Amino acid sequence: MRDLDFYAYHGTSDTSAKKIVASQSFIIKGNRTNHWLGDGFYLYREDYKQASVWAQTKYRFRKNVKPTVLEARINAPFNKVLHLDTREGIESLARFLSHVREEILFEPEEDKISAHFVFSMMDPEYVWAIIKTFTVQSRPIDENKRLKQLSFIHNEEEISYRLQGTQVCVKNSRAIVDSSIQEVAMDKQAKLTMTKKVVKEDDFPWKFQ
């Protein structure tokens, strides 16, 4: 099976961005319980604007910090990536969870296991990266009246218009193509709010029929 090859984006400060670009390496951080895919370096897959909004939100009250977005090319053998948006990836995770429960004795009544704990147990030599799509809270999108009118399946709510963000947790630096990390100019259109304006044909990358 061919390799996974795509671009991913990371929001950070201008100071951190310069250090990362200069060293062409990301620091794999550990012991962060809010990292639901385990220890690693987090990026958004093919979603520059989500990384931009994340950086703007994080540093919005720090006037001396310039929000910055970095781009990196990810390339890894398919069998080195745990892709949790695929059937194969979920089945692999289920097998790993069974193995974890056999190796580590959990109390019978303990029906929940920390995802961070489980993913951090995976060996970076075998799992270079983990990919998972999550629903992202965004008030401008969640409360958009026009989007709320959109129905994918009649009388069903499982599929919705809500913003989805595909996150990539890089656990092994070999997943990042050499010399591919670079700063991306901040897009003035990647704003934190959706402004009301008259819709024009030029606002879209496609044409009305």
From TrEMBL:
SUPFAM superfamilies, per database record: ADP-ribosylation (SSF56399)
The protein's name: DUF3990 domain-containing protein
